[in-house]
Design a protein that fits this description.
Helices cover about 45% and strands about 15% of the residues. The protein contains 17 helices and 18 strands. The strands form six sheets. It has a five-stranded mixed sheet. It has a five-stranded mixed sheet with strand order 11-8-12-7-13, sandwiched between helices. A hairpin with a 5-residue loop joins β9 and β10. The longest helix has 20 residues.
Length: about 400
Amino acid sequence: MEKMKKFAALFLALCMIFALAVPASAANDKAVKVWVAENVVEFTKAQIADFQAAHPEYADFEVTVEPVGEGDAASNVLTDLDAAADIFGFPQDQLARLVAANSLLELEESVAEQVAAENDGGSVAAATLGDLMYAYPMTSDNGYFLYYDKSVVSDPSTLEGILADCEAAGKSFYYDLRSGWYQPAFFFGAGCTLTYDTDSEGNYIACNIDYASEKGFAAMKALVALAKSPAFVNGSSMSTATNVGAIVDGTWDAGAVKEAFGENYACAKLPTCGGVQLSGFGGFKLLGVKPQTDDDKLAFCDELAYFLASGEVQLARFKAVGWGPSNLEAKADEAVQADEALSALGAQLEFMIPQGQYPGEYWGLAEGLGDDIISGKYADADDAALMAALETFQAACEAAK
């Protein structure tokens, strides 16, 4: 009995030594965790099963799909990279923070070129930092565009024409001039910049803004002119709007607009103003892969992420839950093109910039500028007063960092 105890103790000791000799990550080399929004968990599981069935060389990988929304995923990754998913969806405004924290693998040059060729320009820009691509575009479906009543607006291509038609018909043109999300459409369209740089911890370290310029002055004049129109009403929600001839809104209000306009329902990209195409912020969902130590696991994660962001899966996801594709072939599909709101948004996103990170103070500053314009403070202001207002706004934005 004593010999058996000694043998058991020796065996246990050898097992412990062997366990210590094996890298801690080895046990997890075949375990892959994926984070996606809750409403696409089951969809993603099915797609992964199809992928592994088509690639028997990856059949031994055990993939777990967990419901972690894009808004939370990036923060969770930055908080604990080791515990984070190997593949995760996130919004484009978190890209810089994730890259700065070394939490994303950059795409190989050949893969990045292929992804760039397959997806629209806005989503590609959203996945790119500097000259390098760090994520796979999944959607191009967050932004704003023009809804209009065809019986009121004869030509949606120019803001001047839209306002004239609405004024003539006694109808309203809704635009959220106070919003820091909608307001930049005029400034960005004129060629202005307003972005913030952050460090790896998300602290704002620089503001890049040139509103106090000739370009910004042109945009400011256009906003003042818009506010002076009898047709102008500040707002961007069709569910609370009345007597609408046209409204700048998003896909989330498509049902309400259709109900209001009936057979006269129509959509288009934003118009030009003074010959300049209005721009603004665009929103995109991206799919990232965190750094890996095992080459086989890295290859699997990369190929799986590429597949989950492919045109085939983007189109299937659109049909399943309505997410708007960024893949060019998927966007050209009849089912996607038949969605008028999504089609108009897709056209507009080509002119928009991906929304990055902005300090909370910025949104209040934009509201203040919008309030001053709407109140008529600058209705009769001379050029010097308008430029002074832009200089004040610019200085405040710079201080907000």
